[in-house]
Amino acid sequence: MNFIRNTIAVLVGLGIAGLIITLGIRAFPQWVTFDAFAPFEHWQRFLFSMKDDQAFFGFLLFISGLGTTIGGVATAIIVKYAKVAYAILIGFIMLFIAMLDVIIFPYHPTFYKISIFLTFFPFSWIGGKIVEVIYERNKQKRIAEKMNKPK
After folding, report:
1. 3-59 confidence digits (pLDDT tens)
2. Residue 18, Cβ neighbours under 10 Å: how many?
């Protein structure tokens, strides 16, 4: 049962990260050069139109980090054990997708190619640690309440 739960957690985390990145790209109307909701359907043409816009790629790094953090939080909430490890798995999968993007489409600036390695793992780790800290505090609070309970 844990395998199914963990698989669903990873899929939910990836879905949330992808949704946040998609919404982030659509946040600025001057960047929207496509008709469909998801920019990934016309990604090559979209990247070609953005290849000289350094602000777009900086924002893409930021929104990717935010999406990976929230996706890592969602994954860590759903899984039962190894919360940080599964959150980092979200970062690894997102990094793999970003590396494929950089390899397949040659329109990314150099700073973006380097920065993706510094974005996905740390931000997904932060997402997992957020949940781990919250769960640990709640656990300590329950223990303290049990100990202070009048008999």
Report:
1. 999 999 999 999 999 999 988 887 877 777 666 656 667 778 778 888 888 888 899
2. 16
Question: Residue 31 is inside which H or E element, if any?
Answer: none
CA atoms within 13 A on the CB side of 119: 24
> Are 84 and 28 spatial neighbours (Cβ–Cβ below 8 Å)?
no
User: What's the pTM value of the predicted model, to 2 decimals?
Assistant: 0.86
Query: Other C-beta atoms within 10 Å of 79: how many?
Result: 24
Q: How far is CA 26 from CA 38, 67, 105, 124, in A?
A: 8, 14, 20, 22
Query: What are the φ/ψ torsions at residue 51 (nearest 5 degrees)?
Result: -60, -25
Q: Structure tokens of 138?
A: 């709640």
Check if the beta carbon of residue 68 is closer than 8 Å to that of residue 127. Answer: yes
* Percent of residues in the chain assigned helix, strand, coil, to nearest 5: 85, 0, 15
Instruction: Say if residues 113 and 103 touch (Cβ distance below 8 Å).
Output: no
For the chain, the straight-line distance linking the first and the last C-alpha, in angstroms and rounded, comes to 39
